[in-house]
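Revision sheet: C-alpha cells.
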Amino acid sequence: MSAVPSTTPTDSSGRPVRLGLRENWPQFTLLVIVNVCVGGLVGLERTTVPLIGADTFHLTSDLAVFSFIIAFGLTKAVTNLAAGALTARFRRKQLLTAGWLIGVPVPFALAWAPSWGWIVAANVLLGLNQGLAWSMTVNMKIDLVGPARRGLATGLNEAAGYTAVGVTALLTGYLATSYGLRPVPELIGVVFVAAGLALTLVVRDTAAHVVLELAQHAAPLPTGEDTGLKATFARTSWRDRSLRGASQAGLVNNLNDGLTWGVFPLLFTDHGIGLAAVGLIKGLYPILWGLGQILTGHLADRVGRKPLIVTGMLVQAAGFVLALVLLDRPLLAGIASAIALGLGTAMVYPTLIASISDHAHPAWRANALGTYRFWRDAGYAAGALVAGILADAVGLEATVIAAAALTAVSGLLAARWITERRTGTR
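Predicted:
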C-alpha cells in the first residue's frame, strides 16, 4: 500500500491512515503491551483461587469451588457478544477504557474478600473487564493490519495476553509459598490495572482504519445482507459451516482451560505436590500457549487455518491423556500435560480468530468475532460446570478422561466443517 488514495480517511490526529503492521507498528506495539496487562489481571487467579476456596473458605463441593470460573466465563461470554454490537455505538477506545475502569476493584476484592461470595462477585467484574478490554485489543489490531496479516496480528495479541497469564500464575504460586494464599499474590494485579488504564489513554482509536478497509475490500457487501447482531449470531453459530466449526472448537478449547483452571490445582495437590509446583504447571501451560502463538499465527497465514486447528485440538486431547498416564509421578504428569495443552492451544487460538475474520465481511466482522468469542468464553463456564458436576460424582480423574474425549471429537468436527478462505479474498 505505497500510495494513499485521495479518499483515504484520517485518524484522530488528522493524519492519513494506512493498513499494515509496518505502517502501524507504534500503535500495534502499544496495544500488545495493553494486552499484557489484560492477561496479567486474569492470571492472578490461575494458581491460588481454587485453593482459596478449598483451604480458606473450606468449600467441600468441587462445583462450589469452581463457581468463580462459571461467573467469570458467563460474564465474559455475554460481554464479548455485546462488545461486537457496542462497537456500532461507541468507539473501540471508549470500550477499552470502560473495561479497565470496571477492573479496578478486582485485585483488592481477591486479596481481602471476607466471603466466597465476594470472590464470585469479583469474577463478574473480571469477566466484564476481560470481555471489553481483550475484545477491543483484538479488534483494534485486526483493524490496523488489514486482511493479509490477520493470523500474525491475532497471534501476537494472544501471545502477549496468555504469556502474561502464565507468568503471573507462576509468580503467584511462588509468592503464595512465601507469603500465603492472600493478600500478597493478588495485589500485583494493582500494577496491571494502573498500567493498562494509563496506556489505554494514549491509544488512538481505529475507526478510520475500518473505513479504509471497507473502501478497499475486494468483495462489496451483498445488497440487502443483514449485518445486525441477530443475523450475524445465527450465521456464525450454525448457518455457516466454517463459522460453526470454528465456534464449537473455540468453545471446547476454553472448556478445557476452564476445566484445568479448577481441576489441576486440586488434582495435583491431592497427589502431594506443593504450591510452587502447582504454580509451575499452571504457569507453563499459558506461557507455551502464549509464546507459541507468535509462530502459529504467522504459520496460519502461510499454510492455512484448518490444519493447525484440527491438529491443535488433537494435541490438547493427548495432553489430558498424559496427565493420567503419568499421574503416579504427579510433577512429571503436570509438566507433560501442560506442554501438550500449551502447544495444542497455541495452534488453535489465533488461528480460530483469523478463520472467523476470513469468513466475515468487515461490515459484520465485529459482530462475528463477538459471537465467536461468546461461544469460546462460554466454554470457561461450561468447563467449570461440567468439571464440578463430574468431579463431585465420579472424581477428578474421570473428569480429565471426559475432557480428552470431548476435545478429540471437537477436532474431528472442525475437520469436517471448516473450509479455507484465504485472507483478502472475501
